[in-house]
Design a protein that fits this description.
Length: about 260
């Protein structure tokens, strides 16, 4: 049997992925130790259905801001990779995108924590950090989604005098609109789960219901005497929201 050797363009991202995994484990221990000392203070939910509505709206707000941040970055990166970059550069960039897309959230959260401590902003930085986390993942999905657009349509548009950007915007993008919408929805599903980054970027402050996503509220009560009914409602609401978005994305992908 012959052993296949990794290409140089793929070996470095793979090595960095291992390093980031080790660093994320170390940072995770630091975060858990900080949470154990009570540095994260979750808001008091109280009783009734109003807090759950506010938590749902807060989750959707954080997710929406993150998607708004990630969309232009992902579309710009996709256009650059598919229309501007040479085949060699494209072959070098895609492993790096995969590396960034699989990077643990704690790596982004740690950098955001340092910026937050230096600049003095926290709540405003959290959705931006989440958007930067989502951008590489969305870029990879968009890059694959655009493969569904036939290349002969692009060549025909260029032959008729359209620029590369016009061909991409007026021909390729409408052709792959269903796959693009599915990619955005899959990213939204992931963003709902990763909204806990809000708690990581805002250490040492009391999170209000206006800015606290559901999973942040869930994690914020793991180390306190809990009302298990409240935890169950938070978890079920988060699962239901994720499943609905996932089913919509799957339906769009099958069209």
């Amino acid at each position: 049997m012959t052993r296949t050797r990794a290409r140089p363009s793929e070996a470095l991202p793979q090595a960095l992925l291992v390093i980031c995994t080790v660093l994320s484990a170390l940072f995770g221990f630091v975060v858990l130790a900080a949470v154990g000392r009570g540095m994260w203070v979750a808001a008091d939910l109280g009783a009734g259905c109003v807090p759950w509505v506010r938590l749902s709206l807060a989750t959707l707000k954080v997710t929406a801001i993150a998607i708004v941040v990630a969309l232009p970055l992902a579309f710009a990166a996709t256009i650059a990779i598919r229309e501007i970059a040479t085949p060699t550069v494209r072959r070098l960039l895609r492993p790096w995108l995969t590396l960034l897309a699989t990077m643990p959230p704690i790596v982004f959260a740690y950098g955001a924590c340092e910026i937050s401590r230096t600049v003095g902003v926290g709540a405003q930085l959290s959705p931006l950090t989440l958007g930067l986390l989502l951008a590489p993942f969305l870029t990879r999905l968009l890059d694959r989604a655009m493969l569904s657009a036939p290349e002969h349509l692009r060549d025909a548009a260029l032959a008729l005098g359209a620029t590369r950007l016009e061909a991409w915007r007026q021909v390729l993008l409408p052709t792959a609109a269903t796959q693009v919408a599915s990619a955005v929805l899959f990213t939204t599903v992931w963003a709902v789960g990763e909204a806990v980054i809000v708690a990581l970027v805002n250490p040492g402050i009391a999170l209000t219901l206006a800015a606290e996503p559901m999973n942040t509220a869930l994690y914020g009560r793991v180390f306190t005497p809990l009302d298990f009914a409240n935890i169950a409602w938070i978890g079920l609401s988060l699962i239901a929201m994720t499943l609905v978005l996932h089913r919509i994305a799957v339906r769009l992908a099958r069209l």
